[in-house]
Specification:
Protein name: NAD-dependent epimerase/dehydratase family protein
Distance between the termini: 23 Å
Pfam families: Epimerase
CATH superfamily of one domain: NAD(P)-binding Rossmann-like Domain
Order of helices and strands: EHEHEHEHEHEEHEEEHEEHEHHH
Bound molecules: nicotinamide-adenine-dinucleotide, uridine-5'-diphosphate-glucuronic acid
CATH architecture of one domain: 3-Layer(aba) Sandwich
Number of helices: 11
Radius of gyration: 19 Å
Number of strands: 13
Organism: Streptomyces incanus
Length: 332
């Protein structure tokens, strides 16, 4: 269990469906819900019996009576039977990541982030699911003028990935405007980090480089800033979004730890006592210089605020990662 794991909220749905449950955020969410007494159906197209990342992400849930895993692709599977009697659907399944979305995989982004979401919305409407919480992204804001992003700001997505996340979020909110169908909260997560973070993300790579001595590729000069959000904080906001009485459109989930990539490198170095070998590379297309959440609406609607500071969060992330690197204790 991560060092900072805490009961995420006093209230949790009785029965819930988590899509993307074999992923980074989805597996933490499913675990926190089961801990809170929720019966969870987790759906993911990655099969934990053949996919090592899915198996590792779901390890803490194996054998738990409150958790039922379904390996299925939301683009094709029968979704309705999975949703019967659910108080909430947490729709986290999707293809994440800014950089690969410029490539030929864009079709996958479109299919999983938009078309599969459409199927989840139709099924939720047919079954009468009362609440859908969907994973949106800070990337919908695009480049900012340096101030904090408000949910009412005009989105300017700067990558194909961000375009699909905006489409996904807006599709869900359009469904929510109808008299039938679920009420919807779209959570705009800001760069979530912590144990089991995806291996393509920066904090994972910086800590891995510090732990192993392997080089870290830095895209740009490292002065890019992110509103890094610790996983347990993201989960607390996500569960709150399922149980607050009124749905409220899009809400930022971020803030509290605005820092540059160089700051993360410095903390990783001090936590491990080892320097990181940097390979500087060109800035990637669609990479924004700054993300910064205005956390006001999340406080107002969800009663949520981030609790874990960057140094403590990175320490917990580093400890979890070190435990997976067999030779680390010998090499250190
Ligand atoms: P992840 O890749 O670890 O998890 C996503 C999961 O969705 C994967 O296990 C994948 O197999 C599953 N999936 C994808 N398409 C599917 C389909 N068609 N049917 C069934 N399962 C499918 O990613 P993550 O970092 O946990 O992100 C979860 C969600 O949060 C994504 O929607 C992502 O866009 C969003 N998000 C993440 C971050 C972050 O910092 N990690 C920030 C903003 C938004
Ligand atoms: C992250 C997630 O990957 C997205 O899925 C999510 O939607 C988004 O956060 C969000 O908050 O909305 P990103 O901010 O690009 O996107 O996060 P990272 O992939 O961790 O990259 C952060 C920064 O580190 C970027 O400037 C990137 O160019 C840089 N980076 C990343 C490197 O310099 N080297 C690397 O090896 C990886």
């Amino acid at each position: 269990m991560p060092q900072h794991e805490q009961p995420p909220t006093n209230a949790a749905p009785r029965r819930a469906v988590v899509t993307g449950s074999a992923g980074f955020i989805g597996s933490h969410l499913a675990h926190a819900l089961v801990q809170a007494g929720t019966t969870v159906i987790g759906v993911d197209r990655r099969d934990p019996s053949t996919d090592p990342t899915a198996a590792a992400n779901l390890a803490a849930l194996r054998g738990r009576s409150g958790y039922h895993h379904v390996t299925a692709d939301l683009l094709h599977c029968a979704i309705d039977p999975l949703l019967i009697d659910a108080d909430a659907v947490f729709h986290l399944a999707g293809i994440p990541g800014v950089r690969p979305s410029w490539g030929p995989q864009f079709g996958d982004y479109l299919a999983s982030n938009v078309l599969a979401t459409h199927r989840v919305l139709d099924a939720s409407t047919r079954i009468g699911v009362p609440r859908l919480v969907v994973a949106s992204s800070s990337s919908v804001y695009g480049p900012t003028d340096g101030g904090a992003s408000l949910e009412t700001d005009r989105p300017k997505p700067a990558s194909p990935y961000a375009v699909t996340k905006l489409a996904e979020e807006q599709l869900c909110l359009a469904y929510a405007e109808r008299p039938i169908g679920p009420s919807v909260i779209a959570l705009r997560y800001f760069t979530v980090y912590g144990p089991r973070q995806r291996a393509d993300m920066f904090t994972h790579r910086a800590l891995h480089a510090a732990l192993t001595g392997q080089p870290l590729r830095l895209y740009g000069d490292g002065h890019q800033r992110r509103d890094f959000t610790y996983i347990d904080d993201a989960i607390a906001a996500t569960i709150a979004a399922a149980v607050v009485p009124t749905a409220h459109g899009a809400i930022n989930v971020g803030g509290g730890s605005n820092a540059s990539l160089l700051d993360v490198i410095n903390i990783a170095t001090s936590l491990t006592g080892r320097d990181i070998q940097l390979h500087q590379d060109h800035t990637r297309n669609g990479d924004v210089l700054l993300t910064r959440a205005d956390p006001g609406l999340a406080g107002e609607v969800l009663g949520w605020q981030p609790r874990v500071d960057l140094h403590s969060g990175l320490r917990a992330h580093m400890q979890a990662l070190a435990a997976q690197i067999p030779d680390y204790s010998r090499a250190a």
